[in-house]
Design brief:
The complex is a heterodimer. Chain A is mainly α. Chain A is built from eleven helices and no strands. Chain A has one domain (82-292): MetI-like (MetI-like fold, Orthogonal Bundle). In chain A, 72% of the residues lie in helices and 0% in strands. Chain B has one domain: MetI-like fold, CATH 1.10.3720.10. A two-stranded antiparallel ribbon of chain B has the order 1-2. The longest helix of chain B has 39 residues, at 25-63. The chains are: A mainly alpha, B mainly alpha. At the A-B interface, α1, α3, α4, α5 and α6 of A face α1, α2, α3, α4 and α6 of B.
């Protein structure tokens, strides 16, 4: 900027100097510091989980039964919890994703600007803020008190948490589908249902799937809704529809408050497994977005 | 929620019809199915309110106005919730004080400082914070973070001990598992959502406002204060409120690190309790009125978070509408 000299009567085009420049630099540095402040805990958590988890994790750890808390880290594993997490999350996905997609179809294709559609859209945003522990209490009151603890009850609680998330992400994707596609198929005489199922949804499929995967990743890590719905036992339960069950997050919760080092080590192993599951789902979602989403934000 | 503005080219009125004028049964059925799925959201919210209140009714009727008393003593059948409401407020406020400046700073960094191609990887990294499950934050918090930070608390506490105001906030007793630890962990957990919502609004500041400010010779900081912040105030307030709602309802991490002691104290480094944590820790063993009281705490938590979320979404929507109108 040295070449630009400010002469009398012309606007001052030089770089700001003195206190103004210093303040500007301080502000920029503070922004970078806030970024660093956010990644330090992330780095620490990931480092600790990987360092402590990697030493216990092995195929037999992932498949063996859960030993008593007293057992040393070399014994047993978290097999029933892995099984439970897969069962419960899969069932919750089957319950929540179709309903969420249909709900978004209503908001975007049928509801338009109507009061009811606006209300549903608004309340589903609000529903994403309902604490997960409240969902647990809700399913406890409406289901567990009548039908007992089961993987299904846990899946219902997770599905309630996933539903508004799926509605919101699907709604965003449906909005991106150009109206010319819809109009083209109406011009061919298709009914609205047919247009939605064969044109609109396929066009948005990539985005819908990746949004659903992110919702699954969140749900797989939830503990609070499962506490009073699956009862956290140590025995494996292959039947997701009846009998108490367990899951990775529930086992981590139990092990985190255990004084025994073996139990804590298994907690770290389970934490690494859980984070790995969540990361894989997230990476797959990103891949699908990058590869298959036709209309990106 | 921009359904409101979306032009609906083929609303139900313009739906395809057969030449006979009747809509095919399948078409009608699909619409009803979609409507039912949408209504499910409202049904679930109403059912949550009804069933949990029902389960908690014995607490509400037995204690009446005493639900907000300070004595929580399950052994003596006294269930005053004030200590938990207080703990919820304190931890959430600590979390916001830490997370909001950091989140707004990152949002401004992303939209105003770094070039676009660097912004994406930074967003991915911040989003990773949200991928770490609550229980993993809790596991790390209680086994690694709390033992480490208690030494810092102890030295701050002994330094602040005698000083009037600071002493009552940071003085002893200090403990690794405390209000403050819970607040810090909550701050980590709400940073991604506050960041991404703030970024959404700062990114919508019209380029012409920015360029205008620069053309007047403003530095970047002056441009941010003059053009970006006035424009995105409403959205940032909404983001902060949503962060507050999250911080109040976050359960498992807090249950592990808050120290589990139903006390009302100004000492931030002392162990405490909050509403979600006491439900998570005690509900499994509770029965009778104890269970009703914990269910009642859930009802209160539901009401608080719903109110905050309704306000937050309202604020966000209003600022979004104003921006579109402008």
């Amino acid at each position: 900027m040295a070449a630009v000299s400010a002469e009398q009567g012309r606007p001052d085009l030089r770089e700001p100097v003195g206190w103004r420049r210093t303040k500007n630099r301080i502000a920029t540095v503070l922004m970078w510091i806030s970024f660093v402040l956010a990644i330090i805990p992330l780095g620490f958590v990931l480092f600790t989980v990987i360092a402590k988890g990697a030493s216990v994790i092995s195929w037999s750890f992932l498949t063996s039964s859960i030993p008593p808390s007293l057992a040393p880290a070399s014994e047993g594993g978290i097999g029933p919890a892995v099984l439970g997490t897969i069962e419960i999350t899969a069932l919750a996905t089957v319950l929540a994703v179709p309903l969420g997609v249909l709900g978004a179809v209503y908001l975007n294709e049928y509801g338009g600007n109507r009061l009811l559609a606006r209300l549903i859209g608004f309340m589903s945003d609000v529903m994403t803020g309902v604490p997960s522990i409240v969902m647990g209490l809700f399913i406890f009151s409406i289901w567990v008190l009548h039908f007992g603890f089961s993987g299904l009850a846990g899946a219902l609680a997770l599905a309630c948490l996933m539903l508004p998330v799926v509605i919101r992400s699907t709604d965003e994707m449906l909005k991106l589908v150009p109206d010319s596609l819809r109009e083209g198929s109406y011009a061919l005489g298709a009914t609205k249902a047919r247009v939605t199922v064969t044109v609109v949804l396929p066009a948005a499929l990539g985005g819908i799937v990746s949004g659903a995967l992110l919702a699954v990743a969140r749900a797989a890590g939830e503990t609070a809704p499962l506490l009073f719905t699956i009862l956290t036992v140590t025995a494996a339960n292959r039947n997701v529809f009846s009998g108490a069950n367990t899951s990775l997050p529930s086992q981590i919760f139990v092990n985190a408050s255990s004084p025994y080092s073996g139990a804590q080590a298994r907690g770290w192993g389970a934490a690494l497994t859980l984070i790995a599951i969540a990361f894989i789902l997230m990476i797959v979602a990103r891949f699908i977005t990058a590869r298959f989403a036709r209309y990106a934000r | 929620m921009s359904t409101a503005t979306q032009a609906d080219p083929a609303g139900t009125a313009g739906s395809a019809r057969t030449l006979s004028g009747r809509r095919p049964l399948g078409d009608r059925g699909f619409q009803i199915l979609a409507l039912a799925s949408g209504l499910l959201v409202l049904v679930i919210l109403v059912l949550i309110a009804i069933t949990t209140t029902q389960q908690a009714s014995s607490w509400f009727t037995a204690e009446g106005a005493k639900i907000f008393s300070t004595t929580w003593n399950p052994a003596a059948n006294q269930f005053g919730a004030l200590a938990f409401v207080y703990g919820t407020a304190i931890t959430a406020v600590i979390a916001l004080i830490i997370a909001v400046p950091v989140s707004v700073g990152i949002a401004l960094l992303l939209t105003e400082v770094v070039p676009y191609r660097w912004a994406r990887p930074i967003v991915y990294v911040i989003d990773l914070l949200a991928v770490v499950p609550s229980v993993v934050w809790g596991l790390w918090g209680i086994l690694v973070f709390a033992p480490w930070i208690q030494h810092i608390y102890a030295s701050i506490g002994s330094g602040a001990g005698g000083i009037p105001v600071l002493g009552s906030l940071f003085g002893p007793p200090t403990s690794g598992a405390s209000f403050f630890t819970a607040g810090i962990i909550l701050a980590f957990m709400i940073t991604p959502i506050v960041t991404s919502l703030s970024r959404e609004v700062t990114a919508t500041v019209p380029a012409i406002d920015r360029e205008g400010a620069y053309a007047l010779g403003a530095t970047r900081l002056e441009m941010i204060r003059g053009a970006v912040l006035p424009h995105s105030q409403g959205g940032i307030v909404g983001a902060v409120l949503l962060g507050l709602g999250r911080a109040m309802g976050e359960t498992i991490a807090v249950a592990l690190v808050i120290g589990s002691s139903a006390t009302i104290t100004s000492h931030l480094f002392a162990p405490g309790y909050n509403m979600p944590a006491v439900i998570a820790n005690e509900f499994g063993e509770a029965s009778g009125e104890f269970r009703a009281a914990l269910m009642g705490l859930g009802v209160l938590l539901f009401i608080f978070t719903i109110i905050i979320n309704v306000i937050a979404r309202g604020v966000v929507e209003r600022s979004a509408r104003r921006k579109r109108g402008a």
